[in-house]
Amino acid sequence: MLRLPPARLLVVKLGSIGDVVNTLPLVNVLKRNWPECELGWLIEPKSYPIVAGHESVDRFIIFHREERLRGVRAALAEIKEFAPELVIDLQRILRSGFFTFFSGASSRLGFDRKRCKEFSGIFTNLKIPPAPVPGHMVHQYLEFASYLNVNWEEIDFQIPLDTRDREQAKDLLPPRFIKDGFIALNIGAAKPANRWPVSHWAALSRRLQGEGVNLVLTGGNQDRERARLIRSRSGEEAVDLAGRTTLKELAGIFSLSRAVVSADTGPMHIASALGTRTIGLFGPADPRRTGPFNFLDEVIISPAECRFCGKRKCRHRHCMEEITPEIVYRKLKT
Questions:
Q1: pLDDT value at 233 more than 80
Q2: Residue 245 · residue 186 · CB < 8 Å
Q3: Where does a domain end: 85, 116, 147?
């Protein structure tokens, strides 16, 4: 029998930065409505820094997947010690299902079977109703609040970013960028098919810098060569921070910027959640599901007929190529 509110609730969302950011509205809604409930979150190290210190989460349990069996045992021991009454599996894969099942919780809530992956549905004993047309992931996660009879009219993210984080971000920028403003170009994407071509980033950079616009290039370690090429082809004026920031520093950069241009990737969701104007470039990914939630009206969709294929890799890459620098420039100017 599901008792509401539970004394202790564990959210299982291990995954990518974007998925974790899009989980925040649900976490906030649950804590706002059940302030006495002790809320835990099982998460992985890659995404943890962007939510560390969040006021809605009483306890983070970090699963170190790279430690293999030792990491599994450590995370499971901490879950058992936490002793949740209710576990919500938002990850819907075999790994999350394992932790959900062996959590010891009497109530284990997950997606309906059609939306589950890797047979993860067998690990839950409660399921939200099927959705005829599942919408944005933020709304899909909030379906769990509806199932639990929790009101979610107000949607907010509340990324924990303090003055110190913003000051550290300022230290990475030239003073004139702070004074005159700048645009952040987030040049990478975890999925190769989602990446906008280097030549397009360079052309957009040249055009904007020709008008005196200050630019900051952001991305991960894997994007350093892309950043070097973009700068070399556009005049070496942009500040290159690709692979040179922590997640909180990156969030600080976005919070200070006039706008962020990005393909579908985790940092795009950070920018959107912060309320910074976010222009998302979409080809293989479907923005109705993974677009920048607060700026879905700013999304630029590829005109290619093969768009929304969902592929991680693509031999042709013309989908993202068909989003021209001119299209993005005009969007920025509106």
A1: yes
A2: no
A3: 147
Note whether 80 and 193 are same-domain residues: no
Q: How confident is the model at residue 1 (pLDDT cuts 50, 70, 90)?
A: low
Domain count, the chain: 2
Q: Are residues 317 and 203 in the same domain?
A: yes
Query: What Rg, from alpha-carbon coordinates, does the chain have?
Result: 21
Give the pLDDT of residue 25: 98
Residue 312 has pLDDT above 80, yes or no: no
Longest dimension (CA), the chain: 65
**Which tens digits make up the pLDDT trace of 142-181?**
999 999 999 888 899 999 998 899 999 999 999 999 999 9
Confidence band (pLDDT; 50, 70, 90) for 245?
A: very high
Nearest residue to 19 (alpha-carbon basis) of 44, 38, 56: 44
Quick one: 131 and 199 in the same domain? no
Question: 265 and 130, same structural domain?
Answer: no
Q: How far apart are CA 46 and CA 18, in angstroms?
A: 11
pLDDT in tens, 316-330: 678 899 999 999 999
Query: What is the domain range of residue 117?
Result: 8-147
Residue 196 shares a structural domain with residue 323: yes
Dihedral sign for Cα atoms in the order 302, 303, 308, 309: negative
**Cα separations in angstroms, 321 against 199, 211, 303:** 9, 24, 10
Q: Distance between CA 251 and CA 207 in Å, rounded?
A: 26
Strand ranges for the chain from DSSP E: 8-12, 38-43, 59-62, 86-89, 107-110, 126-127, 183-186, 215-218, 239-240, 259-263, 278-282, 300-301
Instruction: Estimate to the nearest angstrom the gap between the alpha carbon of 156 and the chain centroid.
Output: 14
pTM of the model: 0.95
Please report, for the domain that includes residue 193, its CATH number: 3.40.50.2000
